[in-house]
Amino acid sequence: MTTRQHDASVYEEIQTSERFRELRSRFRRWVFPMTVAFLAWYVLYVIMSGFARDFMGTKLFGNINVALVFGILQFVSTFLIAWAYSRHAARKLDPLADELRHEVEEKTAE
Q1: Cα–Cα distance between 54 and 70 in angstroms, integer?
Q2: Which residue has the higher pLDDT, 109 or 80?
Q3: Helix crossing, 66-88 with 18-51: angle to 10°?
Q4: Distance CA 18, CA 6 (A)
Q5: What is the largest CA-CA distance in the chain?
Q6: Were 107 and a residue from 10, 14, 32, 49 both cysteine, which residue would form a disulfide, CB within 3.0 to 4.6 Å?
Q7: 58-83 residue pLDDT tens
Q8: Residue 43 CB burial class (10 angstroms; 0-12, 13-18, ≥19)
Q9: How many CB atoms lie within 10 A of CB 62?
Q10: Residue 97: pLDDT above 80?
Q11: Residue of 74, 3, 90, 17 lying closest to 40 (CA atoms)
């Protein structure tokens, strides 16, 4: 078996392992719902801007209206999601990914 074939078989073995499936599952359980939630929030903003102009144009104070606050909250939510994902990854994904990486490195070094 050539080195390239050996490396491929190691990766295939890791990919079919229970720990890799768990890593993928942890990733998907967090990312998919968060993506749906963020897209729903974004679409709400766009729909409200198009169809609820009176509401979005409501002045809150000075020249600040509901649309501007919603727009700023889009940025805030993006940063909060990025921060939350980095915490999730550090606690739930990275330790398992590191174990799998070390396992691959050991097996490909043989």
Answers
A1: 14
A2: 80
A3: 180
A4: 20
A5: 74
A6: 10
A7: 999 999 999 999 999 999 999 999 99
A8: exposed
A9: 6
A10: yes
A11: 74
